């Protein structure tokens, strides 16, 4: 009888631990690091599958700026080029108070939230992790 009670307690403890782990995995925000060319290629080939994988997830990406502009709200947008000329990545910066300006053809390493695809892949709330001085 004592052995049976101990087995039940251990089983209840293990189930509780599994439930806690499952909840923490569900709420944990995982970052997807990916190359800009691979990212655009996946969206071009598998739009709906890519949306399931990346939409509303944190994306870490490194790529070359092809265009820098401010939208009608004064937000800075970096357009990241890819080898896939039909699709690019539009990155809206989280902080518009940028000390050093961005340059066309400059490589940047950013992190932001993927919002899916319209004409281009949209990444919002971007933070620049690193700017590279291309020669």
Descriptive account of the structure:
The chain has helices at residues 2-27, 36-45, 47-54, and strands at residues 31-35, 58-70, 76-80, 89-93, 107-117, 121-132. With 135 residues, it is of the alpha/beta class. The protein has a single domain (31-132), classed as Nucleic acid-binding proteins (OB fold (Dihydrolipoamide Acetyltransferase, E2P), Beta Barrel). A hairpin with a 5-residue loop joins strand 2 (58-70) and strand 3. It is elongated, with a radius of gyration of 21 Å. The N and C termini lie far apart (77 Å).
Domain module tally: 1
- Rounded average pLDDT: 83
Which segments are poorly predicted (pLDDT under 50) over 5 or more consecutive residues?
A: none
CATH architect. name: Beta Barrel
- Placed side by side, the strands forming the largest sheet appear as 2-3-4-6-5
Counting H and I runs of at least 4 residues, what is the number of helices?
3
What is the radius of gyration? 21 Å
| DSSP strand content | 35-45%
Which CATH C-level class is it?
Mainly Beta
Report the structural category. Answer: alpha/beta
Query: What is the 3D shape?
Result: elongated
Question: What are the secondary-structure elements, in order, as H or E?
Answer: HEHHEEEEE
CATH H-level superfamily? Nucleic acid-binding proteins
List how many beta strands DSSP finds: 6
How is the CATH topology named?
A: OB fold (Dihydrolipoamide Acetyltransferase, E2P)
Q: Estimate the helix proportion, in percent.
A: 25-40%
Spatial separation of the terminal alpha carbons: 77 Å
Describe the sheet with the most strands.
Answer: 5 strands, mixed, barrel
């Amino acid at each position: 009888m004592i052995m049976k009670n101990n087995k039940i307690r251990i089983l209840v403890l293990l189930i509780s631990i599994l439930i806690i782990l499952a909840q923490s995995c569900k709420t944990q925000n995982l970052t997807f690091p990916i190359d800009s060319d691979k990212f655009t290629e996946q969206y071009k080939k598998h739009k709906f599958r890519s949306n399931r994988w990346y939409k509303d997830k944190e994306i870490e990406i490194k790529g070359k700026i092809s265009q820098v502009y401010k939208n009608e709200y004064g937000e800075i947008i970096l357009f990241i080029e890819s080898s896939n000329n039909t699709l690019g990545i539009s990155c809206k910066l989280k902080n518009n108070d940028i000390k050093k300006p961005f340059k066309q053809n400059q490589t940047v390493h950013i992190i932001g939230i993927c919002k899916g695809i319209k004409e281009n892949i949209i990444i919002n709330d971007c933070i620049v992790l690193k700017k590279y001085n291309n020669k």
